[in-house]
Amino acid sequence: MPGARPEQATLTRDTDLSKTAETRAVIEGMVDGLNDHRIADIGEFFADSFRWMGNFGCGTKHGLRAFQDNWQRPFQAAFSDKVCVDEARLFMGEWAAAFGRQEATHSGMFMGVPPSGKRVEIRYMDFWKVEDGKITDNWVMVDFPHVLAQLGIDVFNGEGWESFDRGEREPPHPASEGQ
Fold this sequence. Notes:
Layout: H1 20-35, E1 46-54, E2 60-62, H2 64-78, E3 79-92, E4 95-106, E5 119-131, E6 134-142, H3 144-150, H4 162-165
Parallel strand pairs: 1-6
Antiparallel strand pairs: 1-2, 3-4, 4-5, 5-6
């Protein structure tokens, strides 16, 4: 795209790298807390007013209570025997990021799908901001279409771009390509 570009990375411009170890300790403790299935006392790691901003299907939670009531409880009701496995973590000042998977048993209602007892993989990415020893912001991407596919539901009705990868359909090209 020729011309002026939007300003980039504004949230991390003034990162204080001296806070990296503190951020790491908060995130590692929080992940342990989630793996211990803590709900009532998870505020040890989150500010009361923190924001949890998820992709479509996950929603946005404003505050600790909304996170507990509208994410943790429904998630744990739908998936038991779960363990979080961060495959990679990055720390930079008051910022942290991770991607990985949760391995869990589909033991409760999930997105209208009755419990199947199947063991599923729930892939995710998290980006956190830690201030004064607490998580204040959490941007999240959870791959619910992948979870639903494991439960026999194709949310893309066969139109997912994986069909390009398998050679089943020809990918479209932009009209301006090659001009």
